[in-house]
Specification:
Largest sheet: 8 strands, mixed
Structural class: alpha+beta
Radius of gyration: 29 Å
CATH topology of the largest domain: BirA Bifunctional Protein, domain 2
GO molecular function, one term: magnesium ion binding
Strand content: 15-25%
CATH superfamily of the largest domain: Bira Bifunctional Protein, Domain 2
Shape: elongated
Cofactor: Mg(2+)
Catalytic activity: tRNA(Lys) + L-lysine + ATP = L-lysyl-tRNA(Lys) + AMP + diphosphate
Helix content: 25-40%
Number of helices: 16
CATH architecture of the largest domain: 2-Layer Sandwich
Main location: cytoplasm
CATH class of the largest domain: Alpha Beta
Strand order of the largest sheet: 6-10-11-18-17-16-15-14
Number of strands: 18
Pfam families: tRNA-synt_2, tRNA_anti-codon
Length: 500
């Protein structure tokens, strides 16, 4: 027999493995048993290998077969569990001739196996388990990707994440970092006395953000519902109800384009803090973010796309109006309507659409000349009122609001503001948004009478913030596509008939 099993076309190998499966069943071997038995984790065994080897007690390991090297009456295999990988030595004299032949002829790379034996070190100083007995835990009917194309194809990697995790070691590290990030966020807010809550994903109005929603239908109620674009409205209702500090790690849905920074389904933390304003929140957030970066990476500095970013506070604060004036030589206060502004921003290389309002035009101006030009982390503050239907006005102007966004490497990772608690002002803002919807803006916020009513009962001064978990993990793991940090990103459906 050869050192390595000959590489076979996947469809051919599937049929071969089906034949092996039938042979396993005929041999009265259960190819998919429910029970496993006691086992040790490979990482623990390797960590305590010298002590365990000296004791020479039998121990049991489980894992997926990653490699098989046959040598006549014996073979070396590598198995891998969630904690690590180890070599095992299966010898005919140790396990029995019948059992050994069954392994050699019926087991494949990809199968899950249960091994019991004693530890030893080979002549090549490889730490190894000498197998005394073994059993099949799960028969794999398809070869692992490394046997046929290496799984470097991006489309397949995202569509079949399970194979991506098997084939590419670095992928698991990304999602370990994601898990650590979410745990840090939750612990940080819990320690500050915030209450974690859950708010509806199915909502009768899609409020809380300027975004186009997904629509679904509830048959029993015979009504259309929306997947939430943000948990904001419900969280602020809890502030009205007497909570002073609430947060939600929320799955949100926006029916928008897909690119390196956008997935229709994404995760964010939103929190609301009574008796705070956006200035206080800026100080809080830069300290929170810097501590998170230090905890996850071990340093305040990260490298992203071959550039270094320093998260030590304070972050620069760039005023929206003043930065546009400085970078574009344009005083936006001089152009009060979209009709006045349209020609000016088109001169600056931005092609407009008929349904764009003044706020949309200013937002595109900001994205092109500030967000994409400044490395960060930095805050862009005091946005035009048209962009912020839920933010409180600045004290000396009706045209700008108490809002900030945190930007790093062109990504908006956080959005925050002092919340409107004046029901009359909120009513007027919603009416303006409703007019935009009537004019064709599908992302404009609908009028929310229930929320206006809630504000009439009184809400204390409050600041709120939303931070995109996915984008933060992109930065922490140096990933340039948001799909790399979402285990199962949204993809166009594919005919899977011949996908194997």
């Amino acid at each position: 027999m050869t050192d390595e099993k000959t590489e076979i076309n996947p469809s051919d190998e599937y049929n071969i493995r089906l034949e092996k499966l039938e042979a396993i069943k005929k041999a009265k071997i259960d190819p998919y048993p429910a029970q496993t038995g006691d086992r040790s984790f490979i990482a623990d065994v390797l960590k305590n290998f010298d002590v365990l080897e000296k004791k020479q007690n039998e121990l049991s390991l489980v894992g997926r077969i990653r490699n098989i090297r046959l040598h006549g009456g014996s073979c070396f295999i590598n198995i891998q569990d969630d904690s690590g990988k180890i070599q095992a030595y299966i010898k005919k004299d140790e396990v029995g001739a019948k059992e050994y032949e069954q392994f050699a002829n019926l087991y494949d790379i990809g199968d899950y196996i249960y091994l019991t034996g004693k530890l030893f070190v080979t002549k090549k100083e490889e730490r190894t388990l000498l197998v005394k007995k073994f059993s099949l835990l799960s028969k794999a009917l398809l070869p692992l990707p490394e046997k046929w194309h290496g799984l470097s194809d991006i489309e397949i990697r995202f569509r079949k994440r399970y194979l991506d995790l098997i084939s590419n070691k670095e992928v698991r590290k990304v999602f370990v970092t994601r898990s650590k990030t979410i745990k840090f966020v939750r612990q940080y807010f819990d320690d500050l006395g915030f209450t974690e809550v859950e708010t509806p994903i199915l909502q009768t109005l899609a409020g809380g953000a300027i975004a186009k929603p997904f629509i679904t239908h509830h048959n029993a109620l015979d009504t259309d519902l929306f997947l939430r674009v943000a948990p904001e409205i419900y969280l602020k209702k809890l502030i009205v109800g007497g909570y002073e500090r609430v947060y939600e790690i929320a799955r949100c849905f926006r029916n928008e384009g897909i690119d390196h920074a956008h997935n229709p389904e994404f995760t964010q933390i939103e929190f609301y803090w009574a008796y705070q304003d956006y200035q206080q929140l800026m100080v809080f957030f830069e300290n929170f973010l810097s501590e998170m970066v230090k905890e996850i990476t071990g340093d305040y500095k990260i490298t992203y796309d071959e550039k270094e970013y320093n998260f030590q506070p304070p972050f620069p604060r760039l005023d929206f109006k003043e930065e546009i004036k400085k970078r574009c030589k344009l005083d936006i206060d001089q152009f009060k309507t979209k009709f006045e502004l349209k020609d000016e921003i088109e001169k600056l290389g931005i092609k407009t659409a008929p349904e764009w309002d003044r706020g949309k035009m200013l937002d595109e101006l900001y994205k092109k000349y500030i967000r994409e030009k400044e490395a960060g982390p930095f805050y862009i503050i005091n946005h035009p009122i048209e962009l912020s239907p839920l933010a409180k006005k600045v004290s000396d102007s009706d045209d700008y609001v108490q809002r900030f966004q945190c930007v790093v490497a062109g990504y908006e990772i956080a959005n925050a503001f002092s919340e409107i608690n004046d029901p009359v002002d909120q009513d007027e803002r919603f009416k303006y948004q409703a007019q935009l919807r009537d004019d064709g803006d599908e992302e404009a916020t609908e009028y929310d009478a229930e929320f206006v009513e809630a504000l009439k009962y009184g809400m204390p001064p409050t600041a709120g913030l939303g931070m995109g978990i996915d984008r933060v993990v992109q930065l922490l793991t140096n990933q340039h596509n948001i799909k790399e940090v979402i285990l199962f990103p949204t993809l166009k459906p594919k005919n899977t008939e011949d996908d194997n």
